[in-house]
TrEMBL record:
Name the record gives this protein: histidine kinase
Enzyme Commission code: 2.7.13.3
Residues spanning the signal sequence: 1-30
InterPro entries the record matches: CheY-like_superfamily (IPR011006), HATPase_C_sf (IPR036890), HATPase_dom (IPR003594), His_kinase_dom (IPR005467), HisK_dim/P_dom (IPR003661), HisK_dim/P_sf (IPR036097), Homeodomain-like_sf (IPR009057), HTH_AraC (IPR018060)
A Pfam short name: HATPase_c
Reaction(s) catalysed (UniProt annotation): ATP + protein L-histidine = ADP + protein N-phospho-L-histidine
Transmembrane feature ranges: 818-840
Residue(s) carrying 4-aspartylphosphate: D1185
Annotated Response regulatory domain residues: 1137-1252
Lineage of producing organism: Bacteria, Pseudomonadati, Bacteroidota, Cytophagia, Cytophagales
SMART domains registered for this protein in UniProt: HATPase_c, HisKA, HTH_ARAC, REC
Length: 1397
């Protein structure tokens, strides 16, 4: 007995120990495994057909089906589709069960009406039930359906078990094999009343009946039919529900819950709870449905039993209206669906966010009011909750949870007071309340009734309109209070009293403007941050205790990008990384990083709605232990990672009390949990338990609309049956060409938070980018698509933005209209061929005639065009010939008629002009002959080896003087300094001359450039200009004979061409085995590029001549330079000009007739007019009377001699006064001669001719004698100074080859025209010839000295080309410079010989 007692005792001790350990384990994990029963209720208000739920099922597509006593509801997460006897041929509205087979049929069990088969593809409903004369099932009262692993359907009724073999499931008439209870057969079912059928994951079919549980045994060779076996000798009557989990198969009924483990082949009782239905959630909680609510059971490993964790009924859970639970069902993703008797369907997501609620309930220990204004945890672990209308709540014991156990406290017996702020200060708790704006304290060592009014006791004036909204302690002796209307207050303990200072009302703080203080923060460094209605206030640690502290106010500035985002500041929070986070009332978040301060001040980072926030109104900010900030707002709670700035948003669908939270109502508990107060209670949570759901649901198409009409299966639209199957089972739809506007609706079947699911879709073949949408607009809509093949692709994510990698596809074919089908196109082709045949058959002759006429017309137009071009050519040639012929004919006429009267100098000038134009005429004729020879192919190439660069340089120098005269910047760019090869000098010279002449012709004060380089075995020469350019449409005709660009008018070109120059040039280039191209742009310029081969092989068929030394190659130059219009006019003046002045018209006429044959005569009737005429025409002589009105002869003489422009003019006075005094007066004024009236004609003419000829002799002597001085050709000191100044200017610039007439005129201070006139009168030279004459005279002087060579002198006097210098020198002095130098040396030798003798 003793031993037995000891054994029993030990067993009792062991069980007690295990029980205590179990209870301890439960207590330790109570908080960790706390159930968050966040639910959503669906009822008839949401579209459910009826609130009595009898069965719940999820099909293979993921859609939910709910059976009721009034029909069926199908649910896609957003809307219900209902089936009833009235709409879908159900034989009864009382649904008992569902089962889907392998043929996409949904079988529906009915009470007292058999079964129905709903074809999910077509929507066809077929009913099967017993009737008179036809017994399909053992009974019409069906309670359960199941599909075994062979695809057979089992039907459990109240009067037996039925089996429909797989091959029967698609037939219109079915046969069922029936099984009944037989007490004499142990292998039959235990009872005909089958309550539950279940097929587990191992393929076992379980049969639950009124009298127990059996497993089905498949037929075998020894046993041809199904048999049934009990798994235990222990009876388990009756079976209410069968479910399975990883642990095994659970069975529930009135006698508790049994668990069968197939691996161990054990059946054991795991709970005594009596459930009508059960399931195991993903957190391994067992949920059991009873008539008294929902039970949460948790497995206790110590005892091996499931123990009650939580009981939810209508008394403790307002959302549960009805306690009778009829069905608990877990879907594919672990969401629990709870069916009730009259309360609809409850959805519970065990994987949802574990946000827990605290709110007012019928429990007296719940919080007193749901509108929360402040939350605080003190050093003792007590939780204080301030409400808006329910006074103060305190929870002293948190071990039993945070949702109940609160005590209500009031101030001055005011039960509806609002508590805005709670904090600790030294050994006291401080409370800011609304009523009368008072602040109370509570000593930690006193009970909960020892509140003191510190405003009364410490001389702080209470203000009911300015309550304390924020309170912050600053050490043991200082406290800060932010008021709503009275600004910032500072309290300092001194000798048992508190001295208060109103900081806001000091002169230093915006003159008292900042009165609404919402939050106060003292950062790690002791600095004070104040959130106000006017912005963010910063008071440094050094300033905050001063009587009038200095501060910084940071406000929003729309002109400054990084300013504060909004002025009204609510929370101010210091994060663990040192950043200051500021929440605003409309501007989102502003973040200040102390490490980013620069010289321009502080800047704020912004996070707003556009960056991912759900609202720009921020209410509170807290930080968890993992460097995440949790932010409450007007639209839920947001988590922001401090490092990555990743944003996650949570709203009411995640279990929050509401989307709206209260100002500054947040608290972090010592255990790391966070609490946020809102308008409907408090949410608290453990941050690391708020994790993303990585499960993704199925995606289905739910509806198709075409032309705004919803399409159902077998609906006909314009004769087209679009859907032959339900849209969920359709792979492709075919639309007519006029049905090209459609919409497809879709649903993601993750039911956890369906309204947070996201979608994106793309119509391949039309869309280039994905289109993203949300749950409110789950539809892809397209209009007016073109015929063709498209594929609609849709993707879905869950509420945590986790996207399903699989897409849903729907192929869409829009047919072409009949007139664009292949048969129509074949018909069109046949018709076209037929019409072409008819056309060709009957219109060929007409076409041929028309073609012939067109050819004739084309030939006529071509001939006319050629005729016009030739006519234009001959017109241009005529013009080109007439110009030099005129310049030959006129001088010859003058020489014939008056040659005897001309001096030798004048004759020489005419001869040179004739010679020059004869040469010009010869060049034109030669060019025409060359062009003709080229056209006939008679021109041959004669090449010899030489240096291309040297030859091009000589061409360049031949044009250099001309370029200077034309004021064109002319340059040579040599890329390769020596290029040896064969070329025809004559042809190349003509090519380059033509191209350069064209370039200069169309370039005004611009640039012309020659470029030469060797590229491989070719030489390339480019002639570039910045002239008028050629438009693109003219370029292709540019090298055609006789073609001229019409837009190049006479006004633009300096001379008009013949139209054969470029054509001839191209022919010469091609004769030289080269190529020519042109690039041109209007008003930019042109570039002609010619390319020739260098190797001897290219010229093997051409005539080769012996090369001469390169130094002997001489490019012929024009002997006469081109003259400007002014200079040529001055040069061609043949008659001397004379001005006659007399107030007697008869005398004027007489003098005119006398002088007109030999002089160009200008008349004036007084001295003033004579003076003006003299300045205008610059005459060779002035003949004037003395006695005249306005201005007499003496005054005229004096004025002329004083005028620098005309002072050189000879003057003869006609006078009737023959006295010596009058003559002396005239000579003093500068008169050259007197003629007395009446005058002798011959004497007068002799006087005039003598003065003119004397001037010409002096001018010639000045030009040809190298030692002649200006004083020798002038008659006045003014003229002498004029010439001396000009000579000095030229000599100063004598070595500058670019020194021009314009520069000389500019240096002297006159115009080129006046300068030419003056020099012509003084020296018989134009200004250009004058400059050249001075250069040549200085060259002669230098050569005469015998110290310099010819080449040295050439460049010393400003000539850049030696050949040109020699030509000019010989022309001026009659001998070449080398002879001049040799003569000089010869004379010196003769002198030396004479001296030696």
């Amino acid at each position: 007995m003793k031993n037995n007692y000891s054994i029993i005792n030990r067993n009792i001790i062991t069980k007690i120990t295990l029980l205590l350990l179990s209870l301890l384990t439960l207590q330790l994990h109570a908080e960790e495994n706390e159930i968050v029963f966040d639910i959503q209720l669906y009822s008839t208000k949401n579209g459910l057909v009826q609130n009595d739920i009898t069965s719940i099922y999820q099909d293979s597509k993921g859609l939910m089906w709910f059976g009721t006593n009034a029909g069926i509801s199908k649910f896609d997460g957003y809307s219900f589709t209902n089936y009833s006897m009235d709409t879908h041929q159900l034989t009864s509205n009382i649904i008992s069960c569902f089962q889907e087979d392998q043929y996409n049929n949904l079988w529906i069990g009915l009470l007292n009406s058999g079964i129905c088969r709903l074809n999910l593809e077509t929507g066809e409903m077929t009913s099967f039930r017993n009737s008179q004369g036809s017994k399909i099932l053992s009974s019409n009262n069906v309670h359960s359906l199941a599909l075994d692993e062979d695809g057979n359907l089992w039907v459990g009724t109240t009067k037996g078990l039925n089996c429909l073999l797989a091959e029967e499931l698609t037939k219109d008439k079915i046969k069922a094999k029936k099984y009944y209870a037989n007490h004499h057969n142990s292998k039959s079912i235990l009872s005909n009343h089958v309550t539950k059928l279940f097929n587990d994951r191992n393929g076992n079919l379980w049969i639950g009946t009124k009298k127990g549980l059996q497993i089905t045994i498949k037929p075998s060779n020894n046993q041809p039919s199904y048999t049934f076996k009990e798994i235990s000798n222990t009876k388990i009557p009756p079976i209410k529900d069968i479910k399975e989990s990883e642990e095994g198969v659970f069975f529930c009924g009135p006698h508790g819950i049994q668990l069968f483990n197939e691996e161990k082949s054990t059946l054991r009782k795991v709970s005594t709870a009596r459930f009508n239905t059960l399931c195991i959630d993903p957190n391994k909680h067992m949920l059991g449905g009873t008539r008294k609510g929902l039970m949460f059971m948790e497995y206790d490993e110590a005892s091996g039993l499931y123990v009650q964790k939580k009981h939810i009924d209508s008394e403790n859970f307002d959302a549960l209206k009805i306690n009778i639970i009829t069905e608990v069902y877990k879907d594919k993703l672990g969401v629990i669906w709870i069916g009730t008797k009259g309360g609809g369907v409850i959805k519970y997501n065990p994987n949802g966010k574990r946000f827990k609620d605290i709110y007012k309930t019928n429990d007296k220990t719940s919080i007193s009011y749901n509108k929360i204004r402040s939350i605080y945890e003190d050093r003792k672990g007590r939780i204080w909750v301030g409400t808006q209308g329910g006074a103060l709540n305190v929870l002293e014991n948190t071990a039993e949870g945070l949702d109940h156990g609160y005590k209500k406290l009031t101030f001055e017996k005011i039960k509806t007071n609002t508590i805005f702020a709670i904090t600790e200060w030294d050994n006291e708790l401080i409370f800011g309340i609304r009523k009368k704006g008072k602040v109370y304290s509570l000593d930690f060592d006193q009970d909960l009734k020892g509140f003191k009014d510190i405003t009364k006791e410490n001389i702080l004036t209470a203000n009911e309109e300015s309550p304390a909204f924020s309170i912050q302690s600053d050490g043991k002796d200082v406290i800060w209070i932010g008021t709503y209307g009275n600004g910032l207050l500072r309290g300092v303990k001194k000798e048992g009293k508190i001295e208060w200072t109103n900081i806001t009302n000091t002169k230093d703080l915006q003159n008292g403007k900042i009165k609404l203080i919402r939050s106060i923060l003292i950062d790690t460094y002791g600095n004070l941050w104040v959130g106000s209605s006017e912005g963010l206030v910063f008071i440094s640690r050094d300033q905050k205790m001063k009587e009038k502290p200095e501060f910084e106010l940071y406000q929003h500035d729309s002109n400054v990008k990084n300013s504060l985002s909004y002025n009204y500041v609510l929370p101010v929070f210091e994060a663990s990384n040192g950043e200051i986070w500021i929440g605003t009332m409309g501007g989102g978040l502003s973040i200040f990083n102390p490490n980013n301060i620069n010289g321009s001040g502080i800047s704020f980072e912004h996070i707003k709605i556009k960056d991912g926030l759900p609202s720009n109104i921020i209410k509170a900010i807290l930080e968890d232990d993992y460097q995440n900030l949790w932010i409450s707002s007007n639209n839920g709670i947001t988590k922001i990672n401090l490092d990555s700035r990743e944003i996650k948003n949570y709203n009411i669908s995640d279990g929050l009390q509401d989307n709206e939270f209260s100002d500054l109502a947040g608290c972090k508990l010592k255990n790391g949990d966070l609490m946020f107060g809102g308008v409907n209670g408090i949410n608290y949570f453990t941050p690391h338990e708020i994790v993303d759901d990585y499960l993704v649901g199925d995606l289905v198409f739910t509806e198709l609309s075409v032309l705004n009409k919803t399409i159902h299966v077998n609906d006909t639209l314009d004769g087209n049956v679009i859907l032959k199957k339900n849209i969920q089972y359709t792979q492709k739809i075919e639309l007519n060409h006029n049905q090209n506007s459609f919409a497809v609706q879709f649903s993601g079947l993750h039911f956890g938070s369906p309204y947070k699911n996201k979608y994106k879709y793309k119509l391949n073949g039309f869309d280039k980018e994905w289109i993203t949408t949300d749950a409110d607009f789950r539809i892809a809509k397209y209009t007016n698509l073109s015929p063709g093949n498209y594929t609609l692709e849709v993707k879905a994510s869950n509420g945590d933005n986790i996207w399903n990698p699989k897409s849903l596809f729907l192929d869409i074919e829009i047919a072409s209209p009949w007139w664009s089908t292949i048969w129509a196109k074949i018909l069109y082709a046949i018709a076209i061929i037929f019409f072409v045949y008819l056309f060709s058959r009957f219109s060929l002759i007409t076409v041929q005639k028309r073609h012939q006429l067109e050819l004739e017309q084309f030939e006529r137009e071509k001939l006319e065009h050629l005729s016009q071009m030739k006519l234009q050519f001959f017109t241009n040639i005529s013009h080109e010939l007439r110009t030099p012929l005129t310049l030959i004919h006129t001088p010859i006429e003058q020489l014939i008629s008056k040659g005897s009267a001309y001096s030798s100098l004048e004759k020489e000038k005419y001869y040179k002009l004739i010679h020059k134009n004869v040469n010009h005429l010869m060049n034109l004729v030669n060019q025409l002959l060359d062009f003709r020879k080229m056209e006939q192919g008679h021109m041959a190439l004669q090449v010899k080896k030489g240096d291309w660069v040297l030859f091009t340089e000589q061409i360049y120098h031949s044009f250099k003087e001309f370029a200077n005269h034309e004021r064109v910047d002319f340059s040579l760019d040599i890329k390769t300094h020596s290029i040896r090869g064969f070329f025809d000098q004559d042809k190349l010279k003509k090519i380059l001359n033509n191209l350069l002449s064209n370039a200069f012709k169309f370039t005004y004060a611009g640039q012309v450039k020659i470029l030469i380089e060797q590229v491989h075995e070719d030489v390339i020469i480019e002639v570039k200009d910045t002239g008028f350019g050629i438009s693109e449409e003219h370029l292709k005709y540019l090298f055609e004979p006789f073609y001229q660009v019409k837009s190049q008018s006479k006004e633009k070109s300096k001379s008009e061409g013949t139209g054969i120059g470029l054509s001839f040039t191209k022919s010469l280039v091609e004769l030289h085995h080269g190529s020519i191209t042109v690039e041109s742009e209007k008003n930019i310029g042109s570039t002609f590029k010619i390319q020739f081969p260098l190797n001897e092989v290219a010229y093997e068929n051409d005539v080769k001549i012996e090369a001469v030394p390169e130094e002997d190659i001489v490019i012929e130059y024009e002997e006469e330079e081109e003259l400007s219009a002014q200079e040529e006019e001055l040069s061609l003046t043949t008659k001397p000009k004379i001005v006659i002045a007399d107030d007697n018209p008869a005398i004027l006429d007489l003098l005119y007739e006398l002088l007109k044959d030999n002089f160009k005569v200008y008349k004036a009737d007084d001295g003033e007019k004579a003076f003006q005429l003299a300045k205008e025409v610059m005459p060779n002589l002035i003949l004037s009377d003395i006695m005249m009105p306005v201005m007499d002869g003496y005054e005229l003489t004096k004025k002329i001699r004083e005028d620098a422009q005309v002072c050189h003019l000879p003057i003869i006075l006609l006078t009737a006064k023959n006295s010596n005094d009058s003559k002396l007066k005239g000579y003093e004024y500068g008169v050259d001669a007197y003629v007395t009236k009446p005058f002798n004609t011959e004497v007068l003419l002799a006087r005039i001719n003598t003065l003119v000829e004397n001037r010409k002799r002096l001018q010639k002597n000045f030009r040809t004698n190298i030692d002649t001085q200006p004083s020798e050709v002038t008659f006045t000191s003014i003229d002498e100074r004029f010439l001396n100044r000009l000579v000095a200017i030229v000599e100063e610039n004598i070595s500058d080859p670019k020194f021009t007439v314009e520069k000389l005129a500019y240096e002297y201070g006159t115009t080129p025209l006046r300068l030419n006139q003056k020099l012509k009168a003084l020296t018989e030279q134009t200004a250009k010839i004058f400059i050249r004459n001075i250069r040549l005279k200085r060259a002669a002087q230098l050569l005469k000295m015998g110290r310099y060579g010819v080449s040295d002198v050439t460049y010393e006097v400003g000539f850049s080309d030696l050949k040109y210098f020699r030509n000019c020198f010989k022309k001026e002095f009659g001998v070449p410079p080398s002879h001049f130098l040799r003569n000089k040396k010869k004379k010196e030798e003769e002198v030396e010989d004479a001296e030696a003798e």
